[in-house]
User: Fold this.
Amino acid sequence: MSLEDKLYPLLRVYEAAPQPVKSLVGRAYRAIPARLRHGKEYERFQREAAASEGWSPEEIAKYQVKELRETLLAAGESSFYRERFQDAGWIPGNWSRWNS
Assistant:
């Protein structure tokens, strides 16, 4: 869990604070290294984002389909989405209609 996620419950306190306090807290927060603020996956995301700058449209489409599949599989582990998928007549992992 990132530091941002851990601090989220304090957001209302921060928003209600006077501007000088917000400025001080903001400067202190920005002094924390990004990898600590955003979590351990931040550096991987930065590398992936930089690498994707040179991707062809085909590589982008392939990546998007891969990530969508992973998202749908993860959602299918939730009873809420599993029921919605069943109502739609679809089983996560059954990609026969969406082969690329």
Summary: DSSP finds seven helices and no strands in the chain. The two ends are 34 Å apart (CA to CA). The longest helix spans residues 57-75.
